[in-house]
Amino acid sequence: MKSSNRIRTVRKTTGEVVAFSEDKLTRSLVRSGASKTQAQTIVARILPMLEEDTTTQQIYKRAFALLRKEQGYMASKYKLKKALFELGPTGFPFEIFIGEVLSHMGYNTQVGVQLQGHCVTHEVDVLALKEGHVSMVECKFHSDQSRTCDVKIPLYIKARFDDLTASGIHHQPGDITEGWVVTNTRFTKDAEQYGTCVGLRLLSWDFPKGNSLKDIIEQFGLHPLTCSTMLTKAEKQMLLDEKMVLSRDVLKHTSLLDKIGIRAPRKNRILNELAYLSNLTQV
């Protein structure tokens, strides 16, 4: 949809100024569950607020508020990027989350495993086994979306991978054959180029295109419980403390909501929202 020939610009979190894309915002709203007409209506209401130096974060906040007002818990999917940042501050919930994501992709996973390398002992964030192949997965969590993973990260992970494979030790559940680097933000171009060149699997918010972390979460309904717009920050933290990270985890352990003091009818509304986040039609 094109409402004006004037080129509008926005400022990204990196400070880069880019052309504002109505189509991109519309698509993100539709992915969250809004109809195309609803999405276009929200975009039309946002356009007048665009001024010089408007940030992408300001646009997100406005779009989220409008979607939440119009469609209730549909807005919960739209806050996915922000919800990943809420899996902090330690990063350990993010490691559990990635372990769960890989489990739903067919891997058997272990989180926080100590393995002896040729030179030193390494703590592997996630050990993932599938079809006889064992992967070491390093999770790089950032609480600030302006931070990226530069080339030093895959360089470091490749060195750890080489130390583990050179040890000559038969690790359980098997010899490591692949290294991963997963982040909730982005890789620099150099990091993508180096990691791909040396055979590491890189997974970030938007890489690889079409099979990124965002794509996998949306495809399998693996939204973290921090996406919820109905749970308070304190309630989310209590559930994270119980090692619950996925919205669908809570659906399997609904008694935890009772444990943290949530009662009907609010409990039912929360469960419906979590079911929606998990791509389930009913609780």
Shape descriptor reads: globular
CATH architecture of the largest domain: 3-Layer(aba) Sandwich
Strand order across the biggest sheet? 3-4-5-7-9
**What is the percent of helical residues?**
40-55%
Tally of individual domains? 3
* Main sheet characteristics: 5 strands, mixed
Based on helices, strands and strand pairing, what is the structural class?
A: alpha/beta
Number of E-type strands: 9
pLDDT averaged over residues: 89
Weakly predicted, low-confidence segments: none
- Along the chain, the helix and strand elements come as EEHHHHHHEEEEHEEHEHHHHH
Count of helix runs:
13
Rg of Cα set: 20 Å
Strand content: 15-25%
Q: Within the CATH hierarchy, at the fold level, what is the topology of the largest domain?
A: Trna Endonuclease, Chain: A, domain 1
Distance between the termini: 36 Å
CATH class of the largest domain: Alpha Beta
Please describe the structure with a list of short key phrases separated by commas or semicolons.
single chain; 283 residues; alpha/beta; Trna Endonuclease, Chain: A, domain 1; 3 domains; five-stranded mixed beta sheet; two-stranded antiparallel ribbon; 17% strand; globular
Please give a quick description of this structure.
The protein is of the alpha/beta class.
Describe the structure.
It comes from Imtechella halotolerans K1. This is Restriction endonuclease type IV Mrr domain-containing protein. One of its GO terms (molecular function) is endonuclease activity. With 283 residues, the protein is of the alpha/beta class. It folds into three domains: 70 residues; 107 residues, Trna Endonuclease, Chain: A, domain 1, CATH 3.40.1350; 55 residues. It is built from 13 helices and nine strands. A five-stranded mixed sheet has the order 3-4-5-7-9, with helices on both faces. The protein has a two-stranded antiparallel ribbon with strand order 1-2. A hairpin with a 5-residue loop joins strand 1 and strand 2. Helix 1 crosses helix 2 and helix 2 crosses helix 3. The longest helix is centred in the N-terminal third of the chain and has 16 residues. It starts with 8 loop residues before the first strand and ends in a 6-residue tail after the last helix. The model has no long low-confidence stretch (mean pLDDT 89).
